[in-house]
Amino acid sequence: MLFDPRPKVRREDLYDFNEELKKFTKALDEPMVLVSGLRRTGKTSLILTGLNTSGVSYIYFDLREGARSYADLYKLISRGFTEFTRRWSGLRDHFLRVLSRLRGVSIAGVEVSFSWSSRERPLLIELLDAVNDFAERINRRIVVVFDEMQSIRGAMGTVLQSALAHSYDFNKSVTLILAGSEMGVLYSILQNPGSPLYGRAYVEVRTRKLSYSEAIDFLTKGFAEINVHVSRNEIEDAVRELDGIIGWLTYYGYLRSRSIGGVEQVVREATALAKKELESFLATRVSSRYRAMLKLLAQGVKEWGELKKELERLEKKEISDRVIHDILKELRRHSIVNENNEFTDPIYRRASLEL
């Protein structure tokens, strides 16, 4: 169903994206694929639909919640391996035998868990080597997905990137898929000479916003699919509020089709969620200055000189051009605003007004 709020896994439930899907499936034999795009533009749905329709074996690591410790990271990895053993029952015994040779591995039925103790945990390199060993034993390519790759930061991020670089170079039966919504951060991982992954070739597949007409068509088809009548005017209002962000449009369709709420409620709930995400972003920065910048941009102040003037008025002191440059650069790296200092998502503009 088009309005199912969960990531899509079947072709018939994925709206359009024919070209993106074709490019993605064609690249599955490459060493590395990058799936990029703004938040809630269907990256996970594209990946899972492409993998399932292609019939490939894959291990999916959902990194969206991030990891503040090795305990967090290894729990996420354990979850990904466990889901694989449940999904591919015909391959389970072979796979578990390969994993059982690693240190720090516990296996209970289909449940796989790894120790996160510094002395006992298996290296990430060893885990990816084990996947490659398994793939070679069954004479089958394995796809390994790291969704929201940029969420693993700092020293752990470097360790993960080093493991991926090793796998790229030596694990010939593994395809790596890296996905992320903070495109500037992703590119800095892949294109920065100081990054472990620098210099590795990759195929990039980008998701996109729907155009105005596509968004209208998506909602119209979604409501027709479930025999719910919604006026053209209401559909147009929803598209004006939510733009072409298919995740927000899907959420609206889901709530509206169940008479739970309409456009206004979706905007309220979406804004609250976006505000929470912005607060998380601000938590690691000079939040008062970033908050002020986000509010100014949300109010329509976009010209460099005006932004500098307003920040100086608020802080009652002179601010260097470099500070303005660095703030805007960081907002762009995280795909919050674009090169024209416009919000990439209208919901994030609303959330910024409430900071």
Descriptors:
15 helices; 7 strands; 355 residues; 5-stranded parallel sheet; alpha/beta; Arc Repressor Mutant, subunit A
> What is the annotated CATH architecture of the largest domain?
3-Layer(aba) Sandwich
In CATH, what is the homologous superfamily of the largest domain?
P-loop containing nucleotide triphosphate hydrolases
Unreliable runs, pLDDT <50, ≥5 residues? none
Q: What is the rounded Rg?
A: 22 Å
* Number of discrete helical segments: 15
Strand order of the largest sheet: 2-5-6-1-7
CATH level-1 class of the largest domain: Alpha Beta
Mean pLDDT: 95
Beta content: 5-15%
Let me know the largest β-sheet: 5 strands, parallel
Gap between N and C termini? 35 Å
Please render the helix and strand layout as text:
Blueprint: H1 18-26, E1 32-36, H2 43-54, E2 57-62, H3 70-87, H4 92-100, E3 105-108, E4 111-114, H5 124-137, E5 142-147, H6 154-170, E6 174-180, H7 183-191, E7 203-206, H8 212-225, H9 232-242, H10 246-257, H11 263-282, H12 287-298, H13 304-315, H14 321-333, H15 346-353
Parallel strand pairs: 1-6, 1-7, 2-5, 5-6
Antiparallel strand pairs: 3-4
Helix pairs in contact: 1-2, 4-5, 5-6, 8-9, 8-10, 11-15, 12-13, 12-15
Describe the 3D structure.
Helix 12 (287-298) crosses helix 15 (346-353). It contains 15 helices and seven strands. A hairpin with a 2-residue loop joins strand 3 and strand 4 (111-114). With 355 residues, it is of the alpha/beta class. It has helices at 18-26, 43-54, 70-87, 92-100, 124-137, 154-170, 183-191, 212-225, 232-242, 246-257, 263-282, 287-298, 304-315, 321-333, 346-353; strands spanning 32-36, 57-62, 105-108, 111-114, 142-147, 174-180, 203-206. The protein folds into three domains: 11-206, Rossmann fold; 212-261; 282-353, Arc Repressor Mutant, subunit A.
